[in-house]
Design goal:
Layout (H helix, E strand, L loop, with lengths): L4 E4 L6 H8 L3 E4 L5 H8 L4 E4 L18 E4 L9 H6 L3 E3 L6 H17 L1 H9 L17 E5 L3 H12 L3 E5 L5 H7 L2 E2 L2 H7 L2 E4 L13 H5 L5 E5 L8 H10 L2 E6 L18 E3 L8 H21 L16 H21 L4 E10 L6 H13 L11 H7 L3 E7 L7 E9 L3 E9 L3 E7 L2 E5 L4 E8 L4 H11 L4 E8 L5 E8 L5 H8 L4 E8 L1
Parallel strand pairs: 1-2, 1-3, 3-4, 4-5, 6-7, 6-9, 7-8, 9-10, 10-11, 11-12, 13-14
Antiparallel strand pairs: 13-15, 15-16, 16-17, 17-18, 19-21, 19-22, 20-21
Length: 527
């Protein structure tokens, strides 16, 4: 095996280089590269370590060359096109715990500075003024802090704020009541948080759902004289809308460590007397920089030399020895999970995965991660193999595993039972020739099919005419059938059809099929 090579593309504590070399990894340090030069360089390396300056775009990953892994020395991966990395087969890792305390402490410092106007008062005093009456602050004691995003950093901020005897309320779509009680905060919806909070702090990633979440509409719902802190990600706040709210006096002040465009050299909020700004210092302590540098170096070395994966955002933890055996089972788990998630109606309360036969002796956690992630993809587009268990927990979905040494029908099989508030569905699959995933049963109905592309799932009465009627409707719409599989419990009883199509269907055609007299249920599936 040739010596793996890692490019450190951002300024990083020297311990990162030392650790990689100590493990036998070749290291080059090239910081400040242009996007064009970085795109050329990364293809020559097995791994690349970045912080927040170097951006890894989708265009760079179209021809990834040797690149196998990207390590982010920090928690946020918004500077990395994770979807493109996944498509290119490149693992993306972050270091989620190395700078959590530092960022939380910066948030508290910003909140205190905002409450007492410390930067403005300091500047005034340096200028020889003594404007004691001008800088009238407010106490934090007894005030309500609204925490938007109650993950690792948000939880630390809440703990520190309660130490200051603030009352903490929290909004997070993935926060369970049980977790809220553990944190000692009151779980509320977003509008209630806006209405009640004296201070609001943001601790969410920038996604499609959170981008611009603090806009003029949100600001109008907030309590008058609210103070807003953002040490999370730029772009969560519409900056011009915030300026307007500050100018009108509705918002008393803002403390911002992050901005829509960074480096922020020109911004509509700069110079505003009620705004405190810092240049993205949330993770900027010597302790944090050492921690994340050590963590990312250890993770890159472990992956490149041993195949071990930790803190990946686009794949489950799995060892190099397990990978060849687990890969087809992970594919099967993902397909079954996607099927189960799409055929269910109602809120899911439990996902029960049963491993029987030889697969039961494997590292099933990686397979279960695939199952849960793909079940949840019917609910949210932010789920991945790493966060799937936590998202399930936050939605009060119980995940259970059962292992059975011998399967009565197959050498190995995976069964997923999905429980909702009103029904239960079951899907079973196995591998053909130890490598080809196949569905073999749905709700006690035996049916063998490969799950791929666009499909129709039809639950029907076993009566003559279904195949012809469905085929006629699809033919009239110009839809070609790639495969048509049937399964039934017995003559004249409940039956299932799975139709593989060359392209996705529109909703009108699906509704027309659902209106056929033999049809009980139709689901348009995408794999």
């Amino acid at each position: 095996m040739s010596q793996p090579k890692v490019l450190i593309a951002d300024k990083m504590d020297p311990q990162a280089e030392s650790i990689l070399k100590r493990h036998g990894v070749s290291v080059d340090i090239k910081t400040g590269l242009s996007p064009e030069d970085l795109a050329k360089e990364i293809a020559n390396y097995d791994g690349v370590a970045v912080r927040s300056s170097a951006k890894i775009t989708g265009a760079m990953l179209k021809s990834p060359g040797k690149l196998k892994v990207i390590g982010r020395a920090g928690i946020g991966v918004d500077t990395i096109d994770v979807s493109a990395a996944t498509a290119a087969g490149v693992v993306v890792m972050n270091t989620p715990f190395g700078n959590s305390i530092t960022t939380a402490e910066h948030t508290i410092a910003m909140m205190m500075a905002l409450a007492r106007q410390i930067p403005q008062a300091s500047q005034s005093t340096h200028m020889g003024k003594w404007e004691k009456s001008k800088f009238m602050g407010v106490e934090l004691y007894g005030k309500i802090l609204g925490v938007i995003g109650c993950g690792n950093i948000g939880a630390i901020v809440a703990s520190r704020a309660m130490g200051l005897q603030m009352n903490v309320i929290g909004y997070d779509p993935f926060l369970s009541e049980e977790r809220a009680r553990e944190l000692g905060i009151k779980k509320v919806d977003l509008d209630a948080l806006f209405a009640d909070a004296d201070f609001i702090t943001l601790h969410v990633p920038k996604t499609e759902s959170t981008s611009g979440m603090i806009d003029k509409t949100a600001l109008s719902k907030m309590k008058k004289d609210v103070r807003i802190i953002n040490c999370a990600r730029g772009g969560l706040i519409i900056e011009q809308d915030l300026k307007d709210a500050l100018d009108s006096g509705h918002v008393a002040g803002a403390a911002l460590d992050v901005f829509e465009i960074e480096p922020a050299q020109d911004n509509c909020l700069f110079g505003h007397p009620s705004v405190i700004c810092t240049p993205h210092l949330g993770a900027s302590t010597s302790e944090a920089q050492v921690n994340v540098a050590i963590q990312v170096a250890e993770q890159l070395a472990a992956y490149l030399l041993q195949g071990a994966v930790s803190n990946a955002v686009n794949m489950p933890s799995i060892s190099a020895e397990e990978a060849p055996k687990l890969k087809p089972w992970m594919s099967l788990g993902a397909q079954l999970g996607r099927l189960a998630g799409q055929i269910c109606d109602g809120a899911i309360t439990k996902i029960h995965i049963t491993y029987s036969g030889k697969v039961a002796a494997m590292n099933t956690r990686a397979i279960s991660s695939c199952v849960v992630a793909d079940v949840l993809k019917s609910m949210t587009d932010t789920v991945n193999l790493v966060n799937a268990p936590e998202i399930a927990k936050s939605r009060n979905i119980t995940i259970a595993e059962t292992k059975i040494d011998v399967d009565p029908n197959w050498s190995s099989a995976v069964t997923i039972d999905i429980h909702t508030e009103s029904e239960t569905h079951s899907v079973t699959g196995t591998l053909f020739a130890n490598k080809e995933p196949r569905l073999v049963m749905v709700d006690t109905v035996p049916i063998e099919a490969a799950l791929m592309g666009a499909m129709l799932f039809i639950r029907n009465d076993d009566k003559p005419g279904l195949i012809g009627a469905v085929g006629t409707l699809l033919g009239q719409a110009g839809q070609n059938i790639a495969d048509f599989r049937l399964g039934r419990v017995g003559a004249g009883r409940s039956a299932i059809a799975l139709v593989t199509l060359d392209q996705a269907l529109d909703s009108k055609l699906v509704a027309a099929i659902a209106g056929l007299p033999q049809v009980q249920q139709v689901k348009h599936l995408l794999f």
